[in-house]
Target: Ectoine/hydroxyectoine ABC transporter substrate-binding protein EhuB
Amino acid sequence: MAAPRGNDAHTIRTERRHTRRSVLAGLAAFGALGAAGCTRVASASGENGGDLLERLRAQGVVRLGIAGEVPFGYIDRDGRLTGEAPELARAIFGRLGVERVQPVPTEFGSLIPGLNAQQFDVVAAGMYVTPDRCEQVIFADPDYQMPDAFIVRKGNPLGLRTYADALRRHAKIATGTGYAQIQHAVEAGFKQNDLVIVPDQVAGLNAVESGRVDLFAATAVTARMVARGSAKAESTKPFVALVDGKPKADGGAFAFRPTETRLRDAFNAELHKLRRSGELYRIMRPFGFTKAEMTTLTAKELCRR
Model:
């Protein structure tokens, strides 16, 4: 998602044309779910690490803040909530004694404010762990590590494989609202005001297919999943972006309110069990993740970077 991701306050130019019927249907269903689940969750005590886990067990449901991005968390054509984060949430919260997950859709940039305003219990959107975000929320350890990739026109006629290539060829670049790829492109030398910011990956694919931009920058898994059914576009090979002149490995994780350390720690314990058993990869593989994108990074490491 994730998210997903980086500076969450960027809105430059928005492309809104969606042509994939299944995605449109999913987003409509997603909006209906959000309307049904927009009430505030019960606040939990922050003493001794919080008591939210006990409350979730008692009510039997956890509300997930979701940004509606393939493959991190979305509604499929049958109207079912799915994606790597919701499926992982079902597995871990089930082990913690919470039977159901309920999505609360919102824009990616509203996930952290929504979490801290108690609109939902946890962010489950593949959100990248960054030092800025670590000042606002606490993260579980990452469930994946992700390089970047581009969606380009079929055959990659401009030979765009890295941000340096795109800068050298004066390529017109698009990326998503709140994506870390905004920072990655700026670090490579692009001016922020020259980036085309679109609402999601479907709009990014449309922009490439129509020739309005030369590439759409996203996580490697997003690029693979979105471009694989296109007759006009393809994804490039994954690459690691440079930040401050150094390769930057981003990791995505679940986020919790700072007071809820007991819930975060319990979640982490189950996540590590799934990782050791290989079940984590089995959950994530159907959503396009590869073994190379599994990780042993910790939130503590990423919060320090």
